[in-house]
């Protein structure tokens, strides 16, 4: 029997509250040193104790967001606070830049070469401030966001490894993340900076990285949005583009911008058509826009977050525009994802499949996968489906 809106809503909410969050609450906290373990095997056992700042911050944000937006579970808040205190103690260098990774006890392992540690720190502390009122968290979020804006034209700084001037490139990742991050810190920063960040993000996503003739979003372009015929310049990540489109839908909703909403939905459907594997199903991780073999050897893997973000783009597109193509794609993505990624035995979702849809790694977390994409997806999906039900 086909599922209806209520069936989907109940599935996502139940999975979030009775499956995914209990998994992380039980296995992730480091009760000895603080912070979180993210390298968890299928059953939740820790297989590596290094702590990656991206994922530490993402878990603080997830716990704070759910406490703020879903239910006042004191366990979520306590864990968020202990994670934040670990980060305050160990997470930054003397200049206030956030490290990439730490040892279990908090000693730094990898220098702050990656601005995305800062992005997720700003998210985490902004949301935790919202639910605690602790002014330390507000100041950290504000300072970190302003540091991101100051570094955005040269995010890696002294850690940039490319030779200057030979092939200057712009990366899609930062303007894409800023389009979402700015809403997290909106109440903490100057109103003009909010509007400038929103407008700049939309401009870059739609008029620099999106290629209307190719109907794709490139991961990297040159100066003045010039295409670069190289591995990096031809790279497309369909899931990255689809995640950006639901960020733009949120901005369109905030600004009551119907034209932007329609544009984001149109591009989402183009990316679905482009990225879908017609032979085995699922969305490719990476593709080369000219059809050459991508440099990234994992290009044909099917990843959990790609499918989750794509489902959100389709659900939000359907909710805001009623476009039936969005709903058809959502149901197709839903079936593929729940058939292949969800672990019905031990909980949570597997992260990586091969092209045929077979599980590659019997792991629930690692260096890149933690308590973020899956719970955010389940919460956002259930919330959007509820809005569809009452519309």
Main features:
391 residues; mainly alpha; Glycosyltransferase; three-stranded antiparallel beta sheet; two-stranded antiparallel sheet; 12 helices; 13 strands
Concise structural overview:
The protein is mostly helical and 391 residues long. It is built from 12 helices and 13 strands.
Structural description of this entry:
Strand 4 and strand 5 form a beta hairpin. The chain has 391 residues and is mainly alpha-helical. The chain has a domain at 168-360: Glycosyltransferase (Alpha/alpha barrel). Strands 3-4-5 form a 3-stranded antiparallel beta sheet. The chain has helices at residues 5-27, 53-69, 74-90, 115-132, 135-151, 173-184, 191-209, 238-255, 258-275, 304-321, 324-340, 373-390, and strands spanning 39-40, 46-48, 51-52, 101-102, 108-110, 169-171, 210-211, 216-217, 220-222, 235-236, 287-288, 302-303, 352-353. The longest helix is centred in the N-terminal third of the chain and has 23 residues, at 5-27. Helix 2 packs parallel to helix 4 and helix 9 runs antiparallel to helix 10 (304-321).
């Amino acid at each position: 029997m086909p599922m209806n809106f209520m069936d989907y809503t109940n599935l996502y909410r139940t999975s979030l509250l009775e499956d995914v969050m209990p998994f992380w609450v039980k296995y992730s906290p480091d009760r000895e040193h603080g912070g979180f373990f993210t390298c968890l095997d299928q059953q939740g056992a820790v297989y590596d104790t290094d702590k990656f700042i991206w994922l530490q911050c993402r878990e603080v944000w997830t716990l704070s967001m759910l406490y703020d937006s879903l239910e006042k579970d004191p366990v979520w808040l306590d864990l968020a606070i202990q994670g934040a205190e670990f980060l305050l103690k160990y997470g930054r260098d003397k200049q206030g830049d956030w490290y990439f990774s730490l040892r279990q006890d908090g000693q730094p392992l990898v220098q702050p070469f990656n601005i995305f540690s800062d992005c997720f720190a700003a998210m985490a502390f902004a949301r935790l401030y919202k639910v605690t009122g602790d002014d330390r968290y507000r100041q950290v979020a504000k300072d970190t966001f302003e540091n991101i804006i100051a570094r955005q034209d040269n995010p890696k700084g002294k850690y940039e490894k490319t030779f200057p001037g030979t092939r200057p490139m712009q990366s899609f990742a930062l303007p894409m993340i800023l389009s979402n991050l700015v809403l997290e810190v909106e109440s903490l920063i100057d109103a003009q900076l909010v509007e400038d960040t929103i407008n700049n993000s939309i401009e870059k996503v739609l008029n620099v990285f999106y290629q209307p003739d190719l109907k794709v979003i490139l991961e990297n372009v040159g100066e003045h949005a010039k295409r670069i015929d190289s591995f990096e310049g031809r790279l497309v990540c369909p899931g990255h583009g689809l995640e950006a489109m639901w960020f733009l839908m949120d901005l369109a909703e905030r600004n009551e911008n119907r034209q932007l909403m329609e544009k984001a939905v149109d591009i989402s459907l183009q990316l679905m058509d482009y990225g879908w594997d017609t032979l085995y199903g699922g969305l490719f991780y990476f593709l080369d826009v000219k059809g050459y073999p991508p440099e990234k050897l994992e290009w044909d893997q099917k990843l959990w977050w790609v499918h989750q973000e794509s489902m959100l783009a389709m659900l939000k597109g359907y909710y805001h525009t009623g476009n039936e193509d969005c709903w058809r794609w959502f149901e197709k993505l839903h079936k593929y994802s729940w058939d292949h990624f969800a672990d019905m035995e031990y909980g949570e979702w597997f992260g990586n499949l091969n092209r045929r849809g077979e599980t590659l790694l019997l792991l629930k977390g690692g260096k890149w996968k933690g308590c973020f994409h899956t719970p955010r997806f389940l919460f956002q999906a259930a919330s959007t489906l509820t809005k569809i039900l009452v519309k």
